[in-house]
Design a protein that fits this description.
The protein has 569 residues and is an alpha/beta fold. Among the domains are: 149 residues, Urease, subunit C, domain 1, CATH 2.30.40; 125 residues, Diaminopimelate Epimerase, Chain A, domain 1. The chain is 33% helix and 20% strand. It contains 20 helices and 24 strands. The strands form 5 sheets. It has a 6-stranded mixed beta sheet with strand order 3-2-7-22-23-24, covered by helices on one side. The radius of gyration is 24 Å and the shape is globular. The chain binds zinc ion (ZN).
Length: 569
Amino acid sequence: MKRSEFLGKGAAVGAAFGLGMAAEHVRGGGAAGTAAGSTGGSTAPDLIVVNGRVYTQDDALPSAEAFAIKDGRFLAVGSTDDVRNLAAPGRTQQIDAGGMAVFPGFIDAHSHPSGAGLNALMNVNTNLGSVARIQAAIAERAQKTPPGEWIIGYMYDDTKLSEGRALTRNDLDEAAPEHPVVVGHRGGHTGVYNSRAFALAGVTAQTPDPHDGMFYRENGELTGKVAERARDVFARFINTEVTPEQRRDGVAVITREMSAAGLTSVHETGVSAEAYRAYQDARAAGELSMRVYALPRGASYEALLASGVRTGMGDEWLRIGAVKFTADGSASERTMYMSTPYVGRPDDFGILIMSQEEIHEEVERAHRAGWQIGIHANGDSTIDMVLNAYERAQRMWPREDSRHRIEHCSLVNPAILGRIRDLGVIPLPFYTYAYYHGDKWEEYGDEKMQWMFAHRSFLDHGIPVAAASDHSPGPYEPMMALQSMVTRTDFRGRAWGESQKITLDEALRVCTVNAARASFEEGLKGTITAGKLGDFVILGADPHETDPMALKDVAVVRTVVGGRTVHEA
Ligand SMILES: [Zn+2]
């Protein structure tokens, strides 16, 4: 093909995509404008990638060998010869993919990176595999911490300890008798506290449980485990001072790690004012390696709402996302609120955090103000309540393509699936949980697991289910996610809810096209298409030719965002 013909074709496709963006409030604006020919001077690309096995995820041109990028966006996609033709010596960088598989950058549409990054900088990682090792790590930190000051552990996982039991108050007392200690579960909904911490907060074995939380007891004694809002009594005693520089560095650390796993965009679900600042600081310092759709909650949401800001404001690097609420407990910590009880605990249906009235109220306010809404709802009973509110809002104040989200949406049934489809709601079930948290699913049982993290059911109902790690609770690695969704088999080799298996190509779409849709950005990202953002990954092996049980080990050789390499193995 002649150079001008080829470019013209690419530019036309790019323009079509730019103008076709579904959501008026996040229209990219530049999508069409930066396609070929509009930059005044040279049309020579900044970067070309050739000799690849490019899986574009774009139905109009599903596979290609090569593509060119200019001004941060794909300029043209096609054969190696055609793309080489566009290059100008001295101006165009060339990457020879050497026959390796290339995909659009992966998108994690539900995650908590800024908190994870800060933890990594400041607190004690307790993802250590045994009570003894956790005790040693806490004791070591105690040596370096003035008595009376808090020691905070993170990434604790109660089912991954070699002793075969959970961490207790006594374990922490032994490790650090002079310090108040909390070891937070990686799920984010429970923590284990020591006696010093309980004494500070004035909590004893006789203290009643609040309606939205629990102090766990055994034989009349506090075990140390505290769930949900019962933890609020400790909050005012934990005076950890964090500087803006530390927050910025936390963002830099975690986004680098996520880039190395092949992620080019992340949705942070629940962003504070401090985290917004941290993202902007990291970006200004040139240390933000991925794009962020930042969902505010609480005070930062109220302030944005009062300022007239709504979902979609920002740019292709940092954008205001949906407002985030949390309506029930956790899947991995077995506190989500369901219509049927947990296995072995006939009276335990989980913990509800928002009442139906509260959900109605918040949905009404946000929906009428033009916001997209994302509500954390794991259990089927909670999902019903959220759908009640979305249906009511849509009925009373109809809005086109409001695309409200249900974060996690873990346990479903046919009625829920129908309602989600009819409303155009986006579910975001955990994408690595079947694999990583398999040791927890016994408490739900096989029957429920056929309806949990129901990727197959969503797709069969025509629902564009999107990718979600929920890091720190879940690992964010997209390669592990592919393995988890395709095999539904845990790290010990046990299968969970096999009826929910999806194909590799379906799983790839969940992590690219569908995840882009969850932020109204399908016109900007999710496929390798002329006009879209130049975000892509090169993998060390083609997942299509990899044993599904080994997908998690496929190497990410290079991650590129907007034409700039942010990770190279
Ligand atoms: Zn979350």
